[in-house]
Amino acid sequence: MFIAQDHLIRDDHTIEQNWQNYRPEEHQTWRRLVARQKSLLPGRASLDFFAGLDALSILEGGIPHFERLNEVLGKATGWRIVAVPGLVPDDIFFNHLANRRFPAARFIRTPEQMDYLEEPDVFHDIFGHVPLLMNPVFADYMQAYGEGGLKAIGLGALERLSRLYWYTVEFGLIETLAGLRIYGAGILSSGGEVEFSLDSPSPHRIHFDLKRVLRTEYKIDDYQANYFVIRDYRELFDLAQRDFTLIYQEIENAPTFAAGKTATEDDLLHRGTGEYHS
Ligand code: HBI
Ligand code: FE
Question: The whole model's pTM is what?
Fold first, then answer.
């Protein structure tokens, strides 16, 4: 019965997860990926990420059953995971977010793709993105981002807005009392970028500034050349309340920054002896 539905793609691009169809090798790939990140992330990932991982029991067993996660996630913040075949069109993607549905890929990478793959898979989407959706402030930011995305399409500002997603949701860093920590899903699900983003002397770490981020290009095929650092998830929530229509107008004729280029106005974090300070 469930196998008959396997090929069905709905208008909103969702499919059934069909969890029972995962093969043992696929669960094994998941467990290997989890084990790798588990050894890298303590002391590096945001505490809110660990809280979400624990509450959702994501570290136990193989590829999670989305409906099981949804029972916990739904109660905590009203978010729900829906399965999709892979990347979905922008308007569909934003529509899901605006309605507190997170589209997660169903497929998992092959063992040859442990270190790099081009499209987000179930490991990136679930392990990387879902734990922070347990945080009410971050959960509201993601919904606001979806609403902002739908608006940006109409305003022709999608390229600018997608930089905000990239430099926060995917590659964001947060400054905490204990030190600099990761909250971006692209880093949290990566084998190499966890240490690179925090410890390498090569990328710039810049205090978050909305217009600066909207003007900054990014790399999709290499570690980032700059990271933007927030101080609190509330900073994201607050910016989501602003009128982006005006902000797009204000930067309409401003030049963009190439990835890795700094500006004199940038508030840079400097690496000292293992510590970060402004
Ligand atoms: N689809 N499944 C999926 N996941 C994404 O992260 C995603 C997408 N479609 C479009 C998209 N992201 C981008 O438009 C935004 O990140 C800007
Ligand atoms: Fe992602």
Answer: 0.95
pLDDT at residue 145 is higher than 90: yes
Compute the distance between CA of residue 28 and CA of residue 26 in angstroms, rounded to an integer: 5
* Integer Rg of the chain from CA: 18
Average pLDDT taken over every residue of the chain: 94
- What is the rounded distance in angstroms from the CA atom of residue 94 to the CA atom of residue 198? 30
Q: Does the structure show a pLDDT above 90 at 241?
A: no
Per-residue pLDDT band at 116 (split at 50, 70, 90)? confident
Domains and CATH numbers, the chain: 10-269 (1.10.800.10)
Q: What spacing in Å lies between the alpha carbon of 86 and ligand 1's midpoint?
A: 9
Nearest-atom index, ligand 1, CA of 92: 9
* Residues having CB within 6 Å of any atom of ligand 1: 84, 87-88, 90, 93, 103, 120, 162, 165
